[in-house]
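User: I'll paste a sequence; please echo it back and then give the predicted structure.

Assistant: Echoing your sequence first, then the prediction.
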Amino acid sequence: MEKTFEKQGYTNVVFNALFYRNGKKLNSIENAAIANYSGLVLSYYNAENPDKVKVEFKTAQDNVLIWSKVYDLNDSLDDIPKSLSGYAGLGEAEVNDLVQRKFSEMERSKELERLGAELTKATAMNEELQYQVLDMQASLDAKKQIEYYSSVIGMALPGLAKFFTGTPVGNAINFLSGTEESPSQIDAGKEKDPSQREAILEMIQAFCQGLSNQELGTMYLLLSEIEKDKAVLKTILDLITQNSESQKNPQQ
């Protein structure tokens, strides 16, 4: 029996035994050496004739409970060592088996708790990795959007520069697009009446600066179509005028 406790990491173990009949305490054994376990328990059992026995194993130094069990001699005969039923004695083999089963249950419980904690930790790590993947995907999508609009703007700048020839806006667009206006283009722009024309160009400049990348790309496509056929300007103006009139005079 001592070897069983030593395997569990316990040394200098003592035991207590309490004997009862009809709910009344008859006698007890306290802090006895486990080497005397079988003899003492059998002797007290024969003397007291109890119907219930409570056995406890504790450490001698700090009185820590290692294992305990209550044997009901009337109701649970199958679970009682033969010694308490008047047989060969409460031997070391029976006690060792009971103690070993108890510690096996404790070890299984600890292992289940450990596995549960590891599962919880792994689940939390998996969720964190999923969040990181989502963040990386969002960053990648945003990067693709920026690259797309940058390419659209890069294609749009040379075409837009044609509509602002001879103006500071045109010079800036040419600079951004990597092109430069020829002196003849600059001179042609300077020869025109600067008053109303410059005011209109400034309005167009302010309007374009307020556009988003997507809207600016759409404006480029629109201007490209107008450049092919300037008559489209009148068609667009008529369409806008018709829509404006329809809003002012809705049908009853």
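The chain has two domains: 2-106, 144-248. Residues 144-248 form one domain.
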